[in-house]
Amino acid sequence: MKIAVLTGAGISAESGIPTFRGPSGIWKTFKPEELATPQAFERDPKLVWEWYDWRRSIIKKAKPNKGHILIAHLEQLFEDFLLITQNVDGLHQKAGSKKVVELHGNIWRVLCTACGKKYYNYQVPLEEIPPRCKYCNGLLRPDVVWFGESLPKKEWETALEFVSSCSMLLVVGTSGVVYPAASLPFLAKQKGAKIVEINPEDTPISQIAHIRIRKKASEGMEEFLKML
Ligand code: NAD
Ligand code: ZN
């Protein structure tokens, strides 16, 4: 069986990383849709980086939870497997997942707006905000996909190709409203794949799911593995 998994912020909620829709203290006065955009960065790179610095400080302390670990285990059970994540936190890899496509980039990677170089920077808190490129001193941005930006070409093509020919797509902890990632379950269904959704709440994907597991990711993954 060829199996794909699509994850969103909900898989990392039990690791203490807030989703974009959950509560998150002082930063709740800002909507992610207002901060995670190229326009916001152009207007106020310092504010955007302060938000990322805060998110990086939470992610740095976070550990993979049972949901991440069981997805890494699932990979061991199937030869033909792909994990497609919208998360930027790197927790799937920490849990042992190997076949991972990061659709929205990685919060630990920086991209220079001047010379275009990309590299990893794990400093928390950042020494200087906004941070500067170690090669050319240009302004750095997080190497993540912001609202209104296109997805990295290679990653998106890999995801599309795999999902078009898989026999099952497991969707865990995603609101199903962030496009184009949210189109993947619809494409898979159209091509004949079984859709399984794990989410404590209803989403637009629930309507096309063959199986809905209305639980948190950790318990939902346990239930899914028992069903196999
Ligand atoms: P979202 O914040 O829009 O939605 C989260 C979904 O997870 C909701 O449907 C919610 O019902 C569900 N959920 C909440 N707790 C859960 C749990 N314990 N188990 C299972 N599901 C749970 O997230 P999204 O759909 O990923 O889209 C928003 C964008 O936010 C993505 O592009 C992603 O890159 C970014 N994001 C990433 C992180 C991260 O890397 N950890 C965190 C926040 C946002
Ligand atoms: Zn540079």
Descriptive account of the structure:
It is a single chain. The chain is an alpha/beta fold and 228 residues long. The chain has two domains: 1-17 and 64-104 and 151-228, TPP-binding domain (Rossmann fold), CATH 3.40.50.1220; 18-61 and 106-144, SIR2/SIRT2 'Small Domain' (2-Layer Sandwich), CATH 3.30.1600. Helix content is 32%, strand content 18%. The chain is built from eight helices and nine strands. It has helices at residues 32-35, 38-43, 45-61, 66-77, 91-94, 153-164, 183-190, 217-227; strands spanning 3-7, 81-85, 100-102, 105-112, 118-120, 140-144, 168-172, 194-198, 211-213. Strands 3-2-1-7-8-9 form a six-stranded parallel β-sheet, sandwiched between helices. The radius of gyration is 18 Å and the shape is globular. The termini are close together. The model has no long low-confidence stretch (mean pLDDT 96). The structure holds nicotinamide-adenine-dinucleotide and zinc ion (ZN). Residues 112, 114-115, 117, 133, 135-136, 138 line the site of zinc ion.
Give the SSE map.
Blueprint: E1 3-7, H1 32-35, H2 38-43, H3 45-61, H4 66-77, E2 81-85, H5 91-94, E3 100-102, E4 105-112, E5 118-120, E6 140-144, H6 153-164, E7 168-172, H7 183-190, E8 194-198, E9 211-213, H8 217-227
Parallel strand pairs: 1-2, 1-7, 2-3, 7-8, 8-9
Antiparallel strand pairs: 4-5, 4-6
Helix pairs in contact: 4-8, 6-7
Zinc ion (ZN) is lined by residues 112, 114-115, 117, 133, 135-136, 138.
